[in-house]
Amino acid sequence: MILQKMNQKEDITEEEEDIQRQTHQAKNHLLLRMTEEKEKENIKDLIQDIQKENTIEKQKIVFHLQKKKNSVEEEKEKREKDIQEVHLDLQEHQVHQLQKKDTKEEKQRK
Question: Region (Disordered): which ranges (predicted)?
Answer without folding.
Answer: 1-23, 67-110
